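User: structure tokens for this one?
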Amino acid sequence: MKKVVIGMSGGVDSSVAAILLKEQGYEVIGLFMRNWDTSINGDYLGNPDLNNNICPQEQDYNDAKKVCEKLDIPLYRVDFVKEYWDYVFTYFLDELKKGRTPNPDVMCNKYIKFDMFVKKAQELGCDYIATGHYARIKNNQLLRAKDQDKDQTYFLSQVSRKQLENVLFPIGNLNKTEVRRIAQDNELITADKKDSTGICFIGERNFTNFLKNYLPNTPGDIVDIDNNKIIGKHIGLMYYTIGQRRGLNIGGSKERMFVVGKDLNKNILYISYGNTDYLISDACLIDTINFNCDERPTKCSAKFRYRQNDNDVTLEYINDKEILVKYPQGVKAVTPGQACVLYDGEKCIGGGIIKEVRKNNQKLWYL
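Assistant:
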């Protein structure tokens, strides 16, 4: 009998994944990963859980334990607090310092769930690892999930082909309603538990106050990009992202406004009143390239943020480390630091991190 370790998060998706693995005849063991420690990591400002009798992470562990007891599978617990800080959270902070908009979930999958977790699985003598991701694998190729609304291949785009070996995604062929129904039919405590939100493995935080634990708050000018006039003050460039419309706190105007750029050297946040042309680009340069297939297409589709519709693109291979992604039809709010994920039909073939955004063959100076 093949042995598989399933990452048990204390949520409904991993709970149902464990059920399906047992039904398929695997010897199943659970593993709960603890990747964040409030006291060690100085997570005080912006933390809504400080006065709770039990933190959400411990509640998740207790839920995972109850599920494993009901399914009669052992549950192990492992701490990757240091590794998460070194490989994911430090990256997150460094990107914010550069004025970019990072996606920690992408790096968490690359360095924790499909690296540290795999090594622990090998220690436990397992043949496979499994997670509750909405994704599929066929012939070692990463495919979109059946439930397109829940598809998580965007967040798996930095996972290498080697890392995808011996990986199972048991719920990839199910939609969310089917997953909850299976959990209810099996009377699991997680059946109606709401999906986790917030930063990967950290949870819900008041983002503005949370970042004050780690980065200096440096206010500066908000400038109308059309006339170069100062119209307000921002609380720190790291708190804003391209295309953002809410939370700008600029009084005296009922016009629609949104963030169009940042000047890190001058500490300026640029906004525009209704002129969406500033948000449109036709190419971007990506680095941190990862392909999980043999193909190197010149035409495919891409997502520049999660839940975005596919965009037809052409790829120009600049060198081994950079690709110019072209989309002459124009795409709104392509943002440095975000993942550019490449698709060939239902196959997620990899991607990179957006380094530079261009229009008419020139880097946009305000991005």
